[in-house]
Structure formats: structure tokens, C-alpha cells
């Protein structure tokens, strides 16, 4: 969704309790944080790998420094929403696919904005309405090794597991991430490699720069 699309949403009756501020980069938003008491940040993603990585890293930083701010991510489509939900090092209030109909997108945004004090137990709750298994520690480790260029036999040696086991972990990771090729898996692995390994403690937040 474009900035113009969000601006239109926030002129409708349902969004009148909220004031929208638009930011093109992190620096301008950080400056505004010093004098505007935001309660929610909506981060609108494109499907660029580097932007996903930067978004997730910033969301984690926001969780630490401004834990009372709600965090929402607008993903380009359901595939990206799944990637964000699985790879995020911080808990999110919600992930919404921009491929949803305008009516559904509006409904999901209103629902999330009314839940200012909550972090969803599962980041997919307002995306597809069901609980999805998260990547296991071993699956994350396999992805990190893959992003460093190791082959399946080399990863098996590093983890002291047999090759079939590593292939099974790789397959399970592909299912959970919603990708069906090594290219898609390496995309996710590259993002994961550049994110912190340890999740922060419980915090509240939201995310592009619409707040």
C-alpha cells in the first residue's frame, strides 16, 4: 500500500481517532520520536530483501528503546508476511498482507490499532487467522550455515548430524517459510544471517513509517 492509500484510510470515519504521520526514512522518524508521543508504528514493506532485513533490525531496536509503541508491518504479499513472521527477532503486534482486499486491510488495521496494549502471541494472528509453527533453533542454524555458503554435507559435519537429518530440517524450514526453491530459502537465510540470534525480552511495538 502506498502512502497515498494510507492517507486515504486515515481520512475515513473509522480512523478519525488517529493522526497519521508519514516518514520516508528511519532518521526522520527517530527525530520525530523526541517530541511526538507515538503509540503505533506501521511499517510498509516492498519485497526487497535488504529492506526486509533493515525493517526487522529496526523493529528490534524500537522494541528495546521504545517498548510502549505498538508495531505493525504491512507485507507485500502472503509469502513476505510468512517470511517476516518467521524471521523477526522481536515480537510484533501484527503482520498484514497488502495483497488483501481494501475492505479486509482496513478491517485488520482498525482491529490492530484498537489493541494498543497487546502483543499477539503469534504474529500471524491477524494475517491468516491460525497458529503457525515457528522455525526451530536447529532450522535457524541450518539456514545460517547455508547463508555462509556451506553445503548440506558440510552443515551435517558441523552439527554432527547425518545428511538426511539436515535435509529434513531444510525441507521443514522451506514449508514453514512458504518457499519452494533454494533461491527463496537462501533469501530468508541471508536475512536471518544479518539479524541478532537472541530474541529480546517481551516488549510492545509497531512499524513503515506511518504512525
UniProtKB/TrEMBL annotation:
The keyword Transcription applies. Residues 128-193 form the HTH luxR-type domain. PROSITE patterns: HTH_LUXR_2. GO terms for biological process: regulation of DNA-templated transcription. Gene3D superfamilies: Winged helix-like DNA-binding domain superfamily/Winged helix DNA-binding domain (1.10.10.10). Keywords: DNA-binding, Transcription, Transcription regulation. One of its GO terms (molecular function) is DNA binding. It holds the Pfam family GerE. InterPro entries: Sig_transdc_resp-reg_C-effctor (IPR016032), Tscrpt_reg_LuxR_C (IPR000792), WH-like_DNA-bd_sf (IPR036388). The keyword Transcription applies. This is Response regulator receiver protein. It comes from Enterobacter sp. (strain 638). The lineage of its organism: Bacteria, Pseudomonadati, Pseudomonadota, Gammaproteobacteria, Enterobacterales.
Amino acid at each position: 500500500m502506498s502512502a497515498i492509500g494510507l492517507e486515504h484510510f486515515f481520512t475515513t470515519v473509522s480512523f478519525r481517532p488517529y493522526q497519521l504521520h508519514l516518514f520516508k526514512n528511519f532518521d526522520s522518524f527517530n527525530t520525530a520520536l523526541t517530541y511526538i508521543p507515538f503509540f503505533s508504528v506501521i511499517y510498509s514493506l516492498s519485497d526487497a530483501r535488504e529492506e526486509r532485513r533493515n525493517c526487522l533490525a529496526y523493529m528490534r531496536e524500537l522494541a528495546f528503546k521504545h517498548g510502549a509503541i505498538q508495531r505493525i508491518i504491512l507485507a507485500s504479499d502472503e509469502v513476505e508476511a510468512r517470511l517476516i513472521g518467521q524471521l523477526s527477532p522481536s515480537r510484533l503486534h501484527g503482520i498484514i498482507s497488502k495483497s488483501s482486499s481494501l475492505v479486509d486491510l482496513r478491517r485488520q488495521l482498525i482491529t490492530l490499532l484498537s489493541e494498543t496494549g497487546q502483543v499477539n502471541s503469534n504474529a500471524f494472528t491477524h494475517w491468516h487467522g491460525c497458529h503457525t509453527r515457528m522455525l526451530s533453533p536447529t532450522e535457524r542454524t541450518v539456514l545460517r550455515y547455508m547463508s555462509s555458503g556451506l553445503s548440506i554435507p558440510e552443515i551435517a559435519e558441523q552439527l554432527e548430524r547425518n545428511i538426511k537429518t539436515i535435509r529434513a530440517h531444510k525441507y521443514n524450514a522451506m514449508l514453514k517459510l512458504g518457499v519452494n526453491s533454494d533461491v527463496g530459502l537462501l533469501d530468508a537465510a541471508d536475512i536471518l544471517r544479518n539479524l541478532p540470534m537472541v530474541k529480546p525480552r517481551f516488549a510492545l511495538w509497531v512499524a513503515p513509517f506511518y504512525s
